[in-house]
Every structure is written in structure tokens, then in C-alpha cells.
Amino acid sequence: MGLLSTITSPEDVRRLTPAQTRRLAVEIRDFLVENVSRTGGHLGPNLGVVELTIAMHRAFASPRDTFVFDTGHQSYVHKLLTGRQDFTGLRKRDGLSGYPSRAESEHDVVENSHASTALSWADGIAKANTVARRDDRHVVAVIGDGALTGGMAWEAINNIAADADRRLVIVVNDNGRSYSPTIGGVANHLDTLRVTRGYEAFLGWGKRTLHRTGAPGRFAYDWLHGLKKGLKDVVAPQGMFEDLGLKYIGPVDGHDTAATEAALRRAKAFGGPVIVHVMTEKGRGYTPAEEDVADRFHAVGKIHPETGLPVAPSRFGWTQVFADEIVAIGRRRSDVVCLTAAMLHPVGLAPFAEEFPERTFDVGIAEQHAVTSAAGMAFGGLHPVVAVYATFLNRAFDQVLMDAALHKAGVTFVLDRAGITGDDGASHNGMWDMAMLRIVPGLRLAAPRDEATLRTALRTAVDVDDAPTVVRYPKGALGEPIEALEELEGVDVVARHTPGGEAPAGRKVLVVGVGSMVGSALAAGESLAAHGLEVDIVAPTWVLPVPERLVKMAGEHDLVVTVEDGVVDGGVGAMLAQRAAEQGVRTPFVHRGLPVEFLDHASRDQIVTAQRLRAEDVVRDALAALAQD
Ligand SMILES: Cc1ncc(C[n+]2csc(CCOP(=O)(O)OP(=O)(O)O)c2C)c(N)n1
Ligand SMILES: CC(=O)[C@@H](O)[C@H](O)COP(=O)(O)O
Ligand SMILES: [Mg+2]
């Protein structure tokens, strides 16, 4: 029986000998490769924090000491050491979440997978400990070098540094990468500190050598050590952290459990805010990950553990269409530039960057900065395209509103992973963008239904230079092309069903499909027609502002059904109903979409079914509404 299976709580970890901790690390790595290759997940990041997490649980006592993981994708090892070793259902409905989960364990605090928030959480928890006079506990926040490029992290550091008594340890998990190598001044500074690994070795050598010469040597070392700050200036440029008033410990080899544990114990003993700069390697110990140039197996699907190759080849999807079309646009328009927030490959900008490196900008995990910088680029005569996952634009709403829209900036936002994503949990579903952006004056939003409408929407969007435009599409594979029978003032009619002759009064239904939900709308329309109804199914590509022709169509039917992959409250359907009411249209509406709830991790299909977005659900609700008339 392996050592890992004997670990049921952090106390068990603290009882291990150094040799046993080294063996535990080997077993954990084997476990991660074996299990995550079967389920998919964040293999690379977790392979990089095996020794670090063991050391944390040995130097501190969770849950009395609070552990906070930034982004949370690197918390699998933490789960293994806190009583959760059944990974068969990882990221699956009713299985382990891929992120910390309070419902799973008292050892988990921050569930949201949005980066750069951990230090603010830690600041707040540490303040609460101070106010509540809980003087016997620490807060330990693990933040990656990538997350450290997010502005919120620096807002927190500014606050944390303000109080020397804050028992707060910031572990900078520095593997030099977000997905790709981390960019920017912060990353460069960490590089500088990283390369002075010799600094610690130099000091260690000095202490051993001088102490061997007896009292004079010990005096000399103490004198030198007293000069450490000055020495550090020489060997390791003065850390920006210490300039801010934070003690800095490191850089430490994050794959040496004993050294990391010693550094953490030093930090704990300090009793104030401390940075522990830990050097790790994403994908450590698994050759396919170590050799993965793109992103070191940041997030993998099911893979063959021996080779790291995907079990199923990735299919041509929405992202690939964007990747292809934006290059074509870039060839035609030299003013088009692209911005990514540390996700060049995941959002499909790698080909554009390859061909137009000088027109591609990776701003780090800094969506707010990306948006306002894009407004600046538009002012400078460019047409910026900001490509992010839909859910991550949430944090830049004010920048969209007050920098892009207020200044009528021709910025195009491309929102990948819009709608239900599923297995990454509640904070990853791109379900808020349409309800959020519908109140931005002048903003235009497109929800294409297939490859052709996506390409057209992108080309239209980059031609709008006096207002922000948004093109949103879901994660994964494209559906079949959906041709329009006709286009009526921006509203594509994709199907008509007439039950032979004039439909009896009260039997005309308009089904409005938004984006990826057009498939459900088409299937529902066919079923409704089988009930003797006259049905028109429409799929407007540009859904915000609501097309006037769509409002008119609503008035020409006895029932309107809207289906959207976003929050229903304040969504496209709600906006259409509101516009119709304002124009005296009395047609009843039925809205299918997502609730104002956080949707637990499950597959997209499971959530589509659970949220009643299937054709049969649309039909059931439409017939019920007609029966009430
Ligand atoms: C606000 C936000 N933007 C983008 C992402 C997507 N994302 C998830 S993990 C990651 C990289 C994080 O890098 P780092 O903090 O260095 O952690 P590592 O994976 O290297 O351990 C990114 C960009 C996110 N989770 N949150
Ligand atoms: C943690 C994080 O935000 C990303 O790594 C996310 O898991 C990526 O999801 P996709 O697999 O949809 O790219
Ligand atoms: Mg990193």
C-alpha cells in the first residue's frame, strides 16, 4: 500500500520523515499523471506544486491557518492531502471540482477560478484575524507569476504592506509561465530574482566557510550578514517587494520540499507580511509536459499517459474559425491589432501572432488594462481586437463602459467560451456577457450561429470604428452550417413551417434562436409545427441592440419563444420583450436561457439538459403558454 493512501489529513503529512515526504512526492506525481490523463484537467500546474503543497501542509496547519490558492487550478495536491483522493469524477457532475470547493472541504476557501484575487482574499482574512484577535493563525496565499500580472494583486499588496503585523505569507509560485511564458515588468523582475539563485547559495557557502574558521570567521559572517541588504543589492537587485515594505524570502527551489518548508517556517516565524518566492516548473516530472512548448500541459483533455498525446484529436471549432478569419482580416487591414490576456493559444491568436508579431499584444492576466489600452489604440488610429474568454470580461465591465463605449472607441471584443462551458465550474461559464453588455450605450453584440456567420460577424465588427463591437461564441466544436431562407433587415429566417393553408387564429409562433441555441430553436420549431402551429424560426446574428425588424415580427405572431445561452434575466429575450412592450406589442413571450444562479461543474450537455434548453423543453413551454391563452 503506498504512502499516499495513508494520508487522510494534513496531520499525517506533518508526521512524515524527510525521506517519506520525498517518496510521497513521487507517489503524488504518479497519481496525477495516471488520474488526470484519464479525466482531463490542469495536469501541468499541479505537477509543478507537489513539493510546495507538501511543504505548506508541513509548515502550517490548515484549516486553522487559511490556505488561499489564486485561480485554484493548482489545488489538486492540496485536495489529495486533505482527504480527497478519489479523482475518478474530477470536474464531472457530482465528482471533485477542478478548483477549491467549500462544499468539499473545510480546507478550501476561494472557489472562483478568476485569477489575481487571492491576495485580496488573504488581506481580508488576515484583517479579520487581527480584528477578532485570532493571533495564533496565518493566512497563506499561493499566487502564480501569471496571476501576479493582474492589477488586483498589486492593489492587495499595497494594502498588505501597510501593516507589519499582518500574519500573511504570500507564496509566489514562480514557474515563469501563465500558459505561455509570463510577460511584463513583474515577470522580468522575477526573472532577475530567479537567476540570482546563486545569491542564496553564495550566502550559504559564505556562512559555512567563515564559520569553519572559528570566532573571527563567525564575526565576519555576522558583519557580512548584517550587510545582507547591501549584498543583496549587489548579487540580487533589491526586490521590489522589499521596497514596498514586504519581507522577501527566496528564491527557493520549490521542488526541494525541505528547503521550501524551511523557508515557509522562516516566513511563519516572521509574524508579518512575507513574500516567499518559490521557483517551480509547470509540468515537472512528466516528460510530455516538460517538453510541451505551448503551455506545459496547462489544461489537458484525456491523454495517453505514456505519451501525453490526446486520446481524441481536438476538432475544428469556433476558436479555429476565429484564428483563421482574424489572420485574413489582418492581411487586409494593417490597422487591426490583437490583444490577449495571457491566453494567446487558448483564444486562437497564435497564427495571428506568428504572422503579425508587431501587431499582437499579450498584456498578461490584465483584462481591465487590455480594454482601456485598446481604447487608447483606437484613439491612436488602430482597430484593436481584444480576445478573451467571455467570463473574464466580467471584470472589465467598467473599462468597456467608460473607456471604450463612452469614447465611442472602435474596439472589437471576441468572447470565446461564451455560454455554458461546464466542467470548469460556476465561475467559468460565459453566461453573463449579453445581460451585462446590453446596457452599454452604442455597443453592438453578435452571437453567430455557425462558421459562416462567425466569419461575417468578425468582418462586420472590425469595420465599425465608432463604437465597441462584441462577437461571442461557445467553447468547442462547431455545429452544422445553418443557412438562412431569407434575411429581413438583419434578421435571418432559418425555417418556416406552415401547416397547410392559413393557420387558425392564435396559432402563429415565432422562435428566436440566439447563437449556439439556434439548433434547439430549429428542432423545437419542427415539433411545434407537428402540433398544427405555424412557426417561423429566426436567428439574428447581431442581437444587441435588438433589431427593429425582430420587434415587428413579434407583433405579427401569437407567441414569441426566445432561446439563449446566457442569463435570461436581462438577456436578449428580455430585451426583445421590453422593446416590444414599449412599442405596444402585446404578444406573450416564453424565455429559455440560464438562471441567475451559479451552475456547478458538469458537462455542457448535462447543464443544457438540466437548464431545460433542449428543443423538447422549448416545445413544452410554448404549448403551455398557448394553452393559457
Ligand atoms: C481573470 C482571468 N483571466 C484569465 C484566466 C485564465 N487562466 C487560467 S490559469 C492562467 C494562467 C495562470 O498563470 P499562473 O498564475 O502563473 O499560474 P500557473 O498556471 O503558472 O501555476 C490563466 C491565464 C483566469 N483564470 N482568470
Ligand atoms: C483555469 C483557467 O481559467 C483555464 O485554464 C481554463 O481551465 C481553461 O479552460 P479551457 O479548457 O476552456 O481553455
Ligand atoms: Mg505561472
UniProtKB/TrEMBL annotation:
UniProt KW keywords: Isoprene biosynthesis, Magnesium, Metal-binding, Thiamine biosynthesis, Thiamine pyrophosphate, Transferase
Pathway listed: Metabolic intermediate biosynthesis; 1-deoxy-D-xylulose 5-phosphate biosynthesis; 1-deoxy-D-xylulose 5-phosphate from D-glyceraldehyde 3-phosphate and pyruvate: step 1/1
Residues the entry annotates as binding thiamine diphosphate: 73, 113-115, 146-147, 175, 286, 367
Origin species: Isoptericola halotolerans
Binding of Mg(2+), residues: 145, 175
A matching Pfam family: Transket_pyr
Cofactor: Mg(2+); thiamine diphosphate
Cofactor note: Binds 1 Mg(2+) ion per subunit.
Protein name, as recorded: 1-deoxy-D-xylulose-5-phosphate synthase
Xref: PROSITE patterns: TRANSKETOLASE_1, TRANSKETOLASE_2
Domain called Transketolase-like pyrimidine-binding: residue spans: 316-480
Reactions this protein catalyses: D-glyceraldehyde 3-phosphate + pyruvate + H(+) = 1-deoxy-D-xylulose 5-phosphate + CO2
Residues annotated as transmembrane: none
InterPro entries: Dxylulose-5-P_synthase, THDP-binding, Transketo_C/PFOR_II, Transketolase-like_Pyr-bd, Transketolase_BS, Transketolase_C, Transketolase_CS
EC number of the protein: 2.2.1.7
Similarity remark: Belongs to the transketolase family. DXPS subfamily.
